[in-house]
Amino acid sequence: MHLQNLLRVAYHLGSMAEEIRTLTVQKLATGGDGIAFSDGQVVFIPFTIPGEKVSCRIVDNSHDYLTAELLEVLEPSQHRVEPECPLFGTCGGCNLQHIDIEKQREFKRQAVREAFIRTAKFDPGPLTMRAGTAYGYRNRAEFHFTSDHGIGFMVDQTENAIRASDCPVVVPVVRSWLRTQNRKSRPERDFKAHVVTAIGLPSLGRIAACISRVETRTLMLWWRVATMSFR
To answer: What CATH number should be reported for the domain whose range is 2-75?
Structure first.
């Protein structure tokens, strides 16, 4: 019996070792994951950049591709930057903040061009882009109430929400509102005090509106100027 247990442990350790691989990222997928190749299979690795050599662990083996978890960047890209958001990599809302903004735009232009080639069967050539600021541009956000009665976002690939003390990608007025709310110990109570589901937020003045679905622990927020609503 002791020998059988040792063999099981040895087999388990051997399987784990096989799942950790050192790969070089070749390109970005449309969704933002890095793409590498291993033994003829496509491997999707989040939070990587083309050209980087990384250590990763295979976490899902589908029929046509593998999905990996990034363990370490062994040879970082010159385009890798420190994300401004403290929840980047945990929150599921953003996946490119580790790449400098000009390279992000280059990847996005290429993704659109490839979509034309793949779907419409023609090459539009180099594309131009109208781009705003790197942060403070998102005018619609979906917040969730957290287990500690705060306000935040869903953790990537889970059904759990995490309190967000800040969100640099939303427009400044919403960012300021979020910071103010989460300084309170239980900001969720402010919304549960409303019986109806459609409410206004006086703290944001006339430039914001909110719909709270307390029963689903979801808070929809968008920025509005006068009679124009950008959602």
So the answer is: 2.40.50.140
Q: Which residues pair with 170 in a beta bridge?
A: 138
User: Can you give the pTM of this predicted structure?
Assistant: 0.75
Count of other CB atoms within 10 angstroms of residue 119:
8
Q: CA 85 to CA 154: how far, in whole Å?
A: 15
d(C-alpha 231, C-alpha 170), whole Å? 12
Q: Where are the domains of the chain?
A: 2-75, 140-230
Residues 6+ apart with CB under 8 A from 90: 155, 156, 162
Going by C-alpha positions, the residue among 32, 30, 176, 23 that lies closest to residue 97 is 32
Give φ, ψ of 217 to 5 degrees: 60, 35
Look-up of token digits 């090459």: 123
Asked if the model's pLDDT at residue 123 lies above 60, the reply is yes
